Amino acid sequence: MSNVVLKNITKIYDKKKVIDNVSLEIKDKEFIVLVGASGCGKSTLLRMIAGLENITDGEIFIGDNKVNDVHPKDRDIAFVFQSYALYPHMTVRENIAFGLKMRKVDKATIEKKVQEAAEILDLGEYLDRKPKQLSGGQRQRVALGRAIVRNPKVFLMDEPLSNLDAKLRVQMRTEIKKLHEKLQTTFIYVTHDQTEALTMGDRVVVLNEGVIQQADTPEEIYNNPANMFVAGFVGSPQMNFIDSNEFPYQTKGNAIVGIRPEKMVCNGEVRLNVKVDITELLGSEKIAYFNIGDKKCSAKLPANYEIDKDLELSINPADIYLFDKETGKRIYN
Description:
By secondary structure, this protein is an alpha+beta fold. It folds into 2 domains: about 5-230, P-loop containing nucleotide triphosphate hydrolases (Rossmann fold, 3-Layer(aba) Sandwich), CATH 3.40.50.300; about 240-330, CATH 2.40.50.140. The chain is about 25% helix and about 35% strand. It contains 8 helices and 18 strands. The strands form 4 sheets. It has a 6-stranded mixed β-sheet with strand order 6-7-8-3-9-10, sandwiched between helices. It has a 4-stranded antiparallel β-sheet with strand order 2-1-4-5, with helices on one face. The mean pLDDT is about 90.
């Protein structure tokens, strides 16, 4: 079994809690994504699972084994770094095989595993090249190959696509998902990119200041955010937040109204006229920006939607979220 269990994990740096009492159960063969802004603690959490950071408090289990005091090389995990961490003087073949050689695996087994990994990752014709002769995407595949040959219980990936251009990131997202399906093992993936999180994860864990804000399927994270932080972090442009006093809709008490930009003009019964400041054309979509009260807001519309300076918003009540002004927590009708 390659499930991973975190129990009340805390990490303190210089008297500051960067991970605050985090508990999470990651199932065998699950692809889980830790997502959040820079400094939220996601990479620190990953490094603690790997054994590269000490735990201040709490317990980590991989399978049935508590690994708090187990050396990283004995945890049966593979770590794929953001920087690829390839040896420039070695060929692709030698880079992929390096970890196995250090474990004194016999040559025939190493060659077999290298060939299998190269086939999975479409690297066969590059095995005798050096990293400098490869593209960014090819180097990332070599880093993945080095992890695959070890046949680990758990793959840990720390922002592995952040150094690639936008087109290549999309391609590599698909390749990593296919890899997960082929290998049928547990993947824990860290990113700051909400699109990566929503498109890749079986479940998404949203972190802020070392605390899990919500852990759920991508659909639930998007459609049923637990609080304002999750609602604002997921979605592009982000959800509009409007003071209930500025909005023509009866709410429970003194709340913050939340509406996604794509739901601002939906032939609903809630009507509101706004003055458009600026519009942006994004291929098949158009974004209109405006203020409601003192809040900057946006509406996502079809590219052919006619927009003057005056725009009438028409919103369905079912598309309106309410959040507590003090705590930011979701208020359910």
